[in-house]
Amino acid sequence: MIQSTDWVVRLEQKNAELALIADLFLTLGQTLDAAVIRSEVLGVAFLLTGAQRVRLAVRHNAGWQIAALRDGAEVTVETDLSTLAQRLIREARPIALALDCPGEGPNCQVGVPLLHRGSVVGALEAEGLPAAERLDDHLHALGLVAGAASLALENARLHEDVLQANERLDAERERLAVTLTSIGDGVIATDTEGRIVLMNRVAEHLTGWTQGEALGRPLTEVFQIVNARTRQPSENPVEKVLVSGAVTGLPNDTALIAGDGGERLIDDSAAPILDKDGSILGAILVFRDATERRQAEQALRASEEHFRLAVDNSPDYVFRQNLDLRYTWVSKAAPPFTPEELLGKTDFELFHREEAERVTAIKRRVLETGVGIATELSASSGGEKQHFEIAIEPWRDRDGRITGIGGYARNITKRKRAEEERDRLTAQLELRAAELDAANRELDAFASAAAHDLRAPLARISGFSKIFLEDYGHSLDERGKDLQRRVADASLGMAQLVDGLLKLARLGCSELHPRSIDLSELAKEIVTDLKETAPERQVEFIIAPKLVAEADPQLLRAALENLLGNAWKYTSKHAQAKIEFGTTVCEDCPVYFVRDDGAGFDTAYADRLFNAFQRLHSSSEFGGTGVGLATVHRIVLRHGGRIWAEGAVEQGATFYFTLQPGPATKGARPGE
Asked: Is 253 helix (H, G, I), strand (E, B) or coil?
C-alpha cells in the first residue's frame, strides 16, 4: 500500500514536471526576446530541480552570456564559466556529480549542454540538489528544458541577426539614397529588361518624371533623347549596354526631351550592373545638363573667332617669339614685310643693327627677369622713321616655365606727330596766356589808377556842392538848390559806377578759392542787412534751408547781394512783397533761384539784362549803376555755371543760376 502511494506521488510529480516543461515550450514559442527566454528557462529549471542555484551560459559573439538564480532569486550576472559548464561545453554530454564537500556535506550537481545542429551553443546547470537519488530525473528534465532553450535561443539569435541585417540594409539603402540625392548628375537604374527601378532627384528634375511615376516603365518612355541638329531619335544607350556589357556614351549633340516638353542638351554615360559572378543585373545611366557648358563652349568659340577677327583687323602687330627670339607667330607684319617673311627670323635679320640691338636687349631682359616691359621705340620702316609703342610679356607653359615671349607693337607715329603739334600749340598758348596775364595786370593797374584819379575830382565835386549849399544855399531859389543837389547826386552816382566797374574788371583776373558754403545762412545775413535799410517795408522772405554749394565765398556773397538787392529794389513800389531764395534740380544738376513779385521785365528785352550799363527801367524809377547783373553773370561764369531769367511786367522776375556745368535748361536766357 505504501509502495502504491509512492508511485502515485511520483506520477503526480512527473506530470507536474511535464506540465512545467509544456508551459515552457508554449511560452518560448511565443517570444523571440533572448532575455525573456533566459529568465523563463532558469525559472523552470529551478522549479524542476529545487536546486539552490541554477545557471545558464549562452554563446554570444566571441564570448558567453551568463545568467543565474540563487534560491529562486536572480543574482548578479557572472562573467566566468563554472568548471561544470566548461566540461559540458567541452564534452557536449549531460553530466551528474555527487560531491561530498568537507564541512558542507553532500553537493549534487547536474548539467546539460545546449546543442543546435550538433554544436554546443550553451550550458544549463543546477547545483545544490536536495536528493542524490534523483539525479537521473533531473538530468532528463534539464535535457528537455535545454532542448527547448537551445531552439528558442537560436531562433532569438537568428531574429536578432535578421533585425541587425535589416538595420544594416536600411542604413545602406539610406546611405545609397543620400548618395544618389547628393550626386549632382541624374542617375537612373534599370533591370535587364530596360525598365526603371530607381532614379534620383536630379533625374526627376531633368526628365520631368517622379520616381513613383517612372518605376517599372521602359527607359525609352521616360528618357526621350533626340539629335539636336537632325531632330531624329537617338539610340538608347542602356539597350546597347545590356547587349554588349560595355560602358557607352552619347554624342555631344544629344538633347533630352523632358515630360513637360522642355529640351536640354545632355552628356551621359551608361554602364552595366554586374553581380559577383559578372552576370548583368541591369544598367545604370548617369547624365547631366550640358546646356550651359555647350553654350559656354559656343561662346568661347565665338570669343576666339572675335579675338581672331579683332587681331586680324587691329592696327596692332601681335607676335610671339621662342627662347632664341625667333618669331613663331605674328598677326600681321609692318610694311614692307609679310607675316611669312618674319616667321623663323630674329630682329637682326629684319632691322638695322642698332635698332635690332635695342629691341633685342629689352626682350632678353623679359626672358631673364620674367617681368613684362612696356616702352616706346623708333624704327625705320619703308624708308621712313616710325614710332612704336610695344608691350612684351614672358610666355609660360602650364608648369610656369618661360618658353618665350609674347607682345604687341602699335604704330604711334601719327600720335607722336600730333603730340609734337600739341606741344607746339601748348607752348604758343602758354605764351599767349602769359601775355594775357600781363595785359590783365596792366588793365587792373590802369583800372585802379583810373578809379583813383576819378574818385578824387568826384569827391571834390561832392564836397564843394555840399559846402556851396551850406554857405550860399540861403541866397538860392528852389530851382538853384535843386540843381545843386542834382550835381551832388550825380557825383555820388559816378563814384558808385566807378566802384562797380572796378569790381567788374577785377572779377576776370581774381583767383578762385572754392570751399563748402551754406548759401541759406549767407542769404539770411544779406536779408538782415536789407531789412535794416527800410524796416518799415512789408516784405515776406522765404529762404530754403540747408542749401550748400562748393564756391568762392566772397564772390558768392557779391552775387547774392546783387540778386537779393535787385529783388528788394524792384519790389519797393509794392506795399506788400514776397522774395524767395531756393533751389530745384534739373537732370541731377542743382539750379538755384531768386524770385520776387515786383516790377518784373518785358521778356523781349531779356537779352540786355546781363550786359553792363543796360537797364530796363529808368534811373529815376529805380536807382542803380547798371553793372550789378553783369557782375553776377561774371561770377557765375567763373564757377563754370550759367544764369538766365524769366519774368513779366508787374508780375515779378526769377533769376536762375548754376555753379557747375549742367544740361541746357528750358527757357534759358542770354548769359547762360
From this structure: coil
* Residue 78 amino acid letter: E
- H-assigned helices in 473-573: 478-507, 519-533, 553-570
Q: Give every CB contact of residue 103 below 8 A, 6+ residues apart in sequence.
A: none
Q: pLDDT tens for residues 571-587?
A: 888 889 999 999 987 76
Tell whether the model's pLDDT for residue 58 goes beyond 90: no
User: Which pTM value belongs to this model?
Assistant: 0.34
| Beta-sheet pairing, 63-70 with 53-60 | antiparallel
Phi, psi of 516 (to 5 degrees): -75, 125
* Of 164, 161, 121, 152, residue with least CA distance to 32: 152
Q: Evaluate whether 522 touches 503 at the Cβ level (below 8 Å).
A: no
DSSP designation for 325: -
Kindly report the CA angle at 267 between 261 and 268, in degrees rounded to 5? Answer: 100
- Cα(290)–Cα(320) distance, rounded to whole angstroms? 35
Give the C-alpha separation, 216 to 193, whole Å: 10
pLDDT in tens, 535-548: 888 989 999 998 99
Q: Rounded CA gap, 14 and 303, in Å? A: 101
**How many helices (H) and strands (E) in the chain?**
16, 25
Q: Angle of helix 34-49 relative to helix 135-182, nearest 10 degrees?
A: 180
DSSP string, 546-606: --EEEE-HHHHHHHHHHHHHHHHHHTTTSSEEEEEEEEEEETTEEEEEEEE-SS---GGGG
